Amino acid sequence: MSLIAILFIIGAYLLGSVSSAIIVCHLMGLPDPRSGGSGNPGATNVLRLGGKKAAAITLLGDSLKGFVPVWLAVTTGLPELNIALVGLAAFLGHLYPLFFGFKGGKGVATAFGVYLGLDWRVGLLVMMIWLTMALLTRISSLSALVSMTLATLVVWYFHPSGASTTMAAVISVLLIWRHKENIRKLISGEESRISKS
């Protein structure tokens, strides 16, 4: 592996470790998302704590953490295996951030960014799946679980080589694991719905 690829992977992890939710809440005078609401430092919890504007900024920040390093890796012409490792590093940075005690969010927005940086067609299709599920069910976690699971198939369709598909599969497994409490609530019918207001 080249030095530039190693630097990209390290940089992607460090960028992923920057928690948009915590920073946005701090700057906007909102409760710490790790202790308020659901306790998850992500856009959905920020929506509960501070409304749509704070959530939108958080969503954008978390998405850019995945998009920027992967897009730069693609435009630089790194091999696909290295690009996949860059994407996975950014995602892992969000889940296990170096700067916040390795306790991060669930990674949905960052994964969207990774897929968009890899291939805009992949990012668009995965986003459409999420939006469709959200409109039908009004349940954010279910929309995330369905879209991110199907993302592996979408990546495989456009990039059938092993590296990108393996990256997507790993992201899917980790996302499902991070949503285990949401899955329990979905099964018991206790999962909260997205507000229409």
Description:
The protein has 197 residues and is an all-alpha fold. 74% of the residues lie in helices and 0% in strands. The protein has ten helices and no strands. It has helices at residues 3-16, 20-27, 43-50, 52-76, 80-95, 108-118, 120-137, 140-158, 162-178, 180-188. It is globular.
Question: Summed up, what is this model?
Answer:
The protein has 197 residues and is an all-alpha fold. The protein is built from 10 helices and no strands. The chain has one domain (3-188).
**What's the count of strands?**
0
The SSE string, one letter per element, is: HHHHHHHHHH
Shape: globular
Biggest pleated sheet: none
* Strand percent estimate: under 5%
The N- and C-terminal alpha carbons lie at a distance of 50 Å
Count helical runs: 10
Residue stretches low in confidence (pLDDT < 50, at least 5 long) are none
Judged by helices, strands and strand pairing, the structural class is: mainly alpha
Number of domains: 1
Q: Looking at the chains present, what oligomeric state does this protein adopt?
A: single chain
Helix content: over 70%
- Average predicted local confidence, pLDDT: 92
The gyration radius over C-alpha positions equals: 16 Å
